[in-house]
Amino acid sequence: MRILILNVNTTASMTQAIGDSARQAASPGTEIIELTPDFGADSCEGNFESYLAAIAVMDKVVRYTEPYDAVIQAGYGEHGREGLQELLEVPVVDITEAAASTAQFLGHKYSVVTTLDRTVPLIEDRLKLAGLTDRLASVRASGLGVLELESDPQRAVAAIVEQSRIAVEQDKAEVICLGCGGMAELEEQVREATGVPIVDGVRAAVTIAESLVRMGLTTSKVRTYAPPRPKTVTGWPLTQAANAL
Amino acid sequence: MRILILNVNTTASMTQAIGDSARQAASPGTEIIELTPDFGADSCEGNFESYLAAIAVMDKVVRYTEPYDAVIQAGYGEHGREGLQELLEVPVVDITEAAASTAQFLGHKYSVVTTLDRTVPLIEDRLKLAGLTDRLASVRASGLGVLELESDPQRAVAAIVEQSRIAVEQDKAEVICLGCGGMAELEEQVREATGVPIVDGVRAAVTIAESLVRMGLTTSKVRTYAPPRPKTVTGWPLTQAANAL
Amino acid sequence: MRILILNVNTTASMTQAIGDSARQAASPGTEIIELTPDFGADSCEGNFESYLAAIAVMDKVVRYTEPYDAVIQAGYGEHGREGLQELLEVPVVDITEAAASTAQFLGHKYSVVTTLDRTVPLIEDRLKLAGLTDRLASVRASGLGVLELESDPQRAVAAIVEQSRIAVEQDKAEVICLGCGGMAELEEQVREATGVPIVDGVRAAVTIAESLVRMGLTTSKVRTYAPPRPKTVTGWPLTQAANAL
Amino acid sequence: MRILILNVNTTASMTQAIGDSARQAASPGTEIIELTPDFGADSCEGNFESYLAAIAVMDKVVRYTEPYDAVIQAGYGEHGREGLQELLEVPVVDITEAAASTAQFLGHKYSVVTTLDRTVPLIEDRLKLAGLTDRLASVRASGLGVLELESDPQRAVAAIVEQSRIAVEQDKAEVICLGCGGMAELEEQVREATGVPIVDGVRAAVTIAESLVRMGLTTSKVRTYAPPRPKTVTGWPLTQAANAL
Amino acid sequence: MRILILNVNTTASMTQAIGDSARQAASPGTEIIELTPDFGADSCEGNFESYLAAIAVMDKVVRYTEPYDAVIQAGYGEHGREGLQELLEVPVVDITEAAASTAQFLGHKYSVVTTLDRTVPLIEDRLKLAGLTDRLASVRASGLGVLELESDPQRAVAAIVEQSRIAVEQDKAEVICLGCGGMAELEEQVREATGVPIVDGVRAAVTIAESLVRMGLTTSKVRTYAPPRPKTVTGWPLTQAANAL
Amino acid sequence: MRILILNVNTTASMTQAIGDSARQAASPGTEIIELTPDFGADSCEGNFESYLAAIAVMDKVVRYTEPYDAVIQAGYGEHGREGLQELLEVPVVDITEAAASTAQFLGHKYSVVTTLDRTVPLIEDRLKLAGLTDRLASVRASGLGVLELESDPQRAVAAIVEQSRIAVEQDKAEVICLGCGGMAELEEQVREATGVPIVDGVRAAVTIAESLVRMGLTTSKVRTYAPPRPKTVTGWPLTQAANAL
Fold first, then answer.
1. φ, ψ for residue A6 (rounded to 5)?
2. Per-residue pLDDT tens for D217-232?
3. What CATH number has the domain spanning B97-201?
4. For a disulfide at A100, which of A132, D158, E35, F156, Cβ 3.0-4.6 Å?
5. Quick one: fold of B2-95+203-244?
6. Domain D97-200, what fold?
7. Region B66-85: what's the mean pLDDT?
8. 3-state secondary structure of D26
9. Which of A61, A144, A238, A240 to mutate to test the interface with B (most CBs of B within 10 A)?
10. What mean pLDDT comes out for the span F156-166?
11. What CATH number does the domain located at A2-96+203-244 have?
């Protein structure tokens, strides 16, 4: 089977890391196609960037012409999953929800540890819409941005490990979802520091997408995620309509 | 003061109707500027169209060069308000939230009556994020689309009146928010049929925007709605970057 | 238009301050009539005093013989608003709910900072009934009573500023509602110390009352707030029935 | 032990019926003193009447000069219990909460069946404040007023039996709390028609009050229900201050 | 009347202490029969032990051949109450729920203070199923096991007193339920240290069971707690079927 | 990998059907071992039977001596999963939770359709503990028992199809979880009648168990699901201790 995995920002190295991580989790016979949007921010750390990413991801997917079996949106706490579900026939999995759903099989409560304080409400809101907050112990931020994970990894890792430890000891989390990607060593260090299972959203999403495909299940089309009604849509897809705008 | 009010779809006649409605509610001295996005669907009845509208609205607002004091997003149950709040210094008011907040001053429970069944979950989700569902009796749909309000108004009105009546009698709503716009007679007929106050989102939003401006209140910038961090954003605003895409 | 604003305690200087604050927020052409109840406590800091105030406020309003367009109950976290809504045809606005509704347009979460610890549950309960707790970060108390705000303002302000700061930093509030009135400088100092918008309940209530009147909206009379059924009520209004008791 | 039980309306025959019902549930050695407020409505069917009753009940209790061990407020869905808890050292039990607490020991979900539709929100709100709504299946109204229970008992009983049956069959209630008093035969008929346990609030409250006294437990005085702070209260108790008003 | 009270563990000295405590709370004429399960753990501090206790308690009760009027399950946060309700005609009272229900009559919020951190989620989950968490301030653990209460009582008491104090001061509890039994002095010391009422689950359960019996109320049999359908059950009761397994 | 899947009742033909269904969903290389408890009821339709099943399942698993990688508890709405999580090192997946988690990836709201009305509260309670009720539209019962699914399949299927249709049309479910197993044709007929995706708990659980194993994730052992503390457990495992009881 072929799974498209969409980075939400325009940083190609992060797309590559996401693709690599997805391939590690994939079953034999699953092909992972990682895609980078053609417009948007080089990192998503707020609502404007996230809304722009939502459209850029849809824009990218609808122009992808090869067949595929499922789509993963690989941004933590980002907008847009519902739009993809309307546009596509295949299952769509968001990594924020995939991580939380998986965490709930492993412990009584879970926490999400992310980068910036300002993205905490975005993650909380996406989990609220997904109906996954009853067992959410906390969403905690390390205070360091997405790109600092790459520029000063040691300090970034230390801050995330510290917040994970507090989540387990004070907030009573029993599982940690890492709400930021791209660092193999991060997961290992958080696990050692806390003694709890660490869930990576990308890997969780790959296994869920594979499972849905294997069971022949796809998005319900009876109401919320029915295909868009036929109507005039000006300037879509944006990248193809560019000259007309 | 000057208030920008943004239609979320590309149908100019609806923008005009929204502007007229807003002007009716405005205080003396308030100038209403109604704007139509430059791309998107001619009516928003689902997530894809709503996400596209979110970006089209932001795209329109950031290119508006005259001074203004507040912005109203005039789509019922639509995405995007949080992005505007990040991008702008002035207060931003969404009509779905304005209507619900207003309704809560008038009765113990309120209902929203809208057009299509498929938009019910969008409205429910926006009200959930806004923290306005505790006193929500129901969101009900007439089963007729946005554009049918214009093409077969008599049948559309009858269907909306009927759902409003059920909301009051069965769901125990004491106030009705009309989740669809553009018809002066609709409001009067629903009021007569149900005997309850009818809240129009556009008018409610105008009074709230005016009030915030008069009190000197604007969006908090300490966390969720802080301005976007400085970073590379490719292809923004979309209409200006068209050639580059 | 004419708006009655009711102090809930019997301290005339506080009625005056409330009236002055209301007039600052009022539009040109709005007349503010501030009223003091004829019985009750000189400050409301608990349930007994608040229940007594509820009746004293109703007793005052029903004996007011001039025409008016709206009524504001100017007590933070007090009982009684529902009774006024039954007795009156005009809209009734409670300042606790007005402040919270307004705050929700300005930030993702809000806190209320009040005087005494013992009034925190009253405020929480009123917000719970109003359906405004989903985005409530916290209700915090400075530990100083209502009258100490007047007797030792410097210490009172410092305590309220400190709790507001904690609300923003620890509880993640992005807006502060001041649950205590009468000090112009307080608002400014809290804003400077926290960097977030400060909502004053009296002013918020005035703008909401004006808006409802302008839109021609008033309390729904179909169920909860229908006029009292005709029946024998002994000793009402209390001040007129005094001799009979 | 001696228990005061307070009717919330001024109808002496209902006070008598409440007292009789309480005595049936009381243990040997428990003396029941039933009291009628000196002012207020002859039946409580809305917020104004309920707020007035709250103060009239407090006014009656604070002037009662004999010793007693507990107080029961015998109105369904009425305001005021928190005020009594502040004013008194002995335990205070509200019949709405007593019935619901008792019902929860008997079935998975419970319903309340009451008289008028307009009192449904009052009962819902009191149960919400009491934290007793998670297992509440419904509050249903027969559509007949309190006094009609006495004037046309047959029709009143039939209407209440019908709503109880619907509560069990449609709302999945497994226990019924009767939110209206004074008819011995009513309880039996509802039980026969539904096959579920019927909880009477007055009797439940008597057993709870006795239990609290026997265990030496009384209202916590550390915060919410601390005695009122010393201050000037004008016109209290109202019946004694009558001449001064 | 005769009430069976079931210890959930196999430690006879704890059964004795539970029986003694129950007898202190019982009315004259109430006979308390304390029973120890015939299999299971010598203390219940987790789910496996609790599930085993659930079955051991049912196994014990169904083999008890004398008549009785009510059953109390005397384990804090344990599984099984619903099973007893199906098997028996008489009322069944769980001490966790009895304590919480009682606490809610005494203060605005309550906390439970228990022994081990690992039992906190069990207690939280039982209270969630019972619909008693809205006014739950916290469940706190002293960090000491059930049997340490007997082996090093001084240290155990100090730890529980400390957590109770934090519950009142930080979590704003106004009542404490002690989620661990068997020590008369513990209750007194916690009361002195905190100034709030202390509720003992065993005593609360005895008064509730007595009250239900006196009112002639018993478990609803229309749905959830209907008797088991006639079917083949292998190996039940376990202790009688032992040879067959 | 090897996955144990535990039937919760003692009917061998149902164990076989569960095993067959699991094998259909399993990846190549996954071995499914289906197990039947050695005691308990021949179908689980209530709390007593479910608690007994919980212990019988644990009793069976702890005596299984071959190595395995994950355990699935294949009963809908049954007790016991938490106990297995304490006793085992490998991941444990409950089919009720697996189905609901999977359904949430496919539609905005989901319903569960089961057999008997009396099991509805059990399923609701398990989903409540699992934190999976926010998007639950309803749990509906066909009114026919587990064994009738085998004895009169045509009537049973018709009743389940009807309830599924109502769930979609009235309760607004977009996905159906079948809360009863063993019939291949049932799933197909419900899908045809409703047009929505149908989730089978056994198959969903197999894919989730496989995914957890592949990602190297297992139950968190830091608190709730830590191994039982060392202590004296009388009569365990029950089947081995039979002679001692």
1. -105, 115
2. 999 999 999 999 999 9
3. 3.40.50.12500
4. A132
5. Rossmann fold (3.40.50)
6. Rossmann fold (3.40.50)
7. 97
8. coil
9. A238
10. 93
11. 3.40.50.12500
